[in-house]
Specification:
The structure is a homodimer of 214-residue chains.
Chain A (H helix, E strand, L loop, with lengths): L15 H20 L7 H8 L3 H8 L2 H22 L10 H18 L1 H8 L6 H19 L6 H21 L15 H15 L10
Helix pairs in contact in A: 1-2, 4-6, 5-7, 5-9, 7-8
Chain B binds a DNA duplex (30 and 30 nucleotides) through α1, α2 and α3.
Pfam families (chains A, B): TetR_N (PF00440)
Protein name (chains A, B): TetR family transcriptional regulator
Keywords (chains A, B): DNA-binding
Chain lengths: 214, 214
DNA sequence: CAACTAAACGGACTTTACCCCGTTTATATT
DNA sequence: AATATAAACGGGGTAAAGTCCGTTTAGTTG
């Protein structure tokens, strides 16, 4: 009678065939991604090429966007490991300011490197960034806690900062030309702007930096 | 021989029937928008209810998102008039700082008021914000020019500021819960954050505020 | 007013994401 | 090993966006 206490939620163990098919689908989608672009990956073709039914594909990933989200999350797991236990300045060992700057820099690099996949992951499901923003917010909050700035509302400040990082990044992903300087065609230096923001925040000391929510 | 010098671009004059149908479609879509939500407006239903063919709908607006974009632009025209010649602090008459703050506040209000339509306008065409961002950037640049801060790179600063305004706003529209405080469920005060940013910029004086692109 | 032309129109057709549900299968239990 | 069952599977079906191209029509010119 050692039933799990929690009856809700999906089954804890993934069936062997389900796992095999999930990995197979991810592998095939990566193949197709290289051959043609993300926009030419259709679910029919994916299913056929993986030797599976369409129904299986959707049961696994819920939607077309879901597949690309899964692809992205695989990468994101690696990123998160680096953040939590990799070498400084991204990982532990550096000061909070350096780690904040490094976090933004690497996250921006990560998403711009995977621009096509990230865009496909948003398709028809613009709510996608929610979970990623939350990851960013939690990490920022942790670092702010360590920094011990004299800020009353750490939670609120973390939210502000994550919006300042993820917002322009989302805008850039949505339409890179929107953040392109008309004069020289150079893309805005998101990472530099982020670094500057963090440095000013830490320089300012215990007054009131980016205002927290009321 | 008074041919227009520019042979490119679409014909300058809209045919009478085309105009009639365009207005009719916009009216019908507004109706349907109230009855059911934006997500239940289908192009087939729209065409039928307007007594027109589907081809006509797409010829006019290019895509489903295009219709909602047109709807939004109609409102945006009114907004722009207020900006250019309305009463202060949004319109001329107030100082650059007040006008910048007012601009952000009203733009945020405008988009959150029309959240459903704005989301529909992004569907399948996340590049939508590009044109709006450009409007924001130009206006900010104009006000910065008047302010005569001691900034070397006004163009770059304007780009940074428009990203700081439009980025988080886009993020909020994409997934409001991403910018929601987990403790009290209150949405982040975008407008307050914007006001704070502008005030700090003007307080800082002629040193180096939000860094411009290299 | 008649001929002409470029634009607008209509609606069948195609494509593709996503749903449904009868069938199969992995896994736990005895 | 036999049984039970919850999960996974398959692929035909549906809905809705977007395309194509033959037909109609507004506006222009002589």
């Amino acid at each position: 009678m050692d039933r799990p206490v929690v009856p809700l939620g999906r089954p804890r163990t993934e069936r062997a065939d389900a796992k095999r098919n999930r990995l197979r689908l991810l592998a095939v989608v990566r193949e197709m991604l290289e051959e043609c672009g993300a926009e030419h990956v259709t679910m029919d073709a994916l299913a056929e090429r993986a030797g599976l039914g369409k129904g299986t594909v959707f049961r696994r990933f819920g939607s077309r966007a879901g597949i690309f989200k899964a692809l992205l999350e695989e990468e994101a797991r690696r990123f998160q490991e680096l953040v939590l236990s990799g070498p400084p300045p991204l990982g532990p060992g550096a000061g909070p300011a350096e780690r904040l700057i490094a976090y933004g820099r690497v996250r921006i690099g990560f998403l711009t490197d995977n621009l096509a996949v990230a865009r496909a992951a948003m398709d028809r499901d613009v709510a996608a960034p929610a979970v990623e923003v939350d990851m960013t917010r939690l990490h920022i909050r942790m670092l702010l806690g360590q920094a011990d700035l004299g800020v009353r509302d750490v939670e609120g400040l973390a939210l502000q900062l994550s919006a300042a990082l993820e917002g322009p990044l989302l805008l850039y992903m949505a339409s890179p030309q929107a953040l392109t300087d008309a004069r020289d065609g150079g893309a805005m230096r998101l990472a530099d702007a982020w670094q500057d923001l963090v440095e000013r925040l830490f320089r300012a000391g215990p007054e009131q930096p980016p205002r927290g929510p009321e």
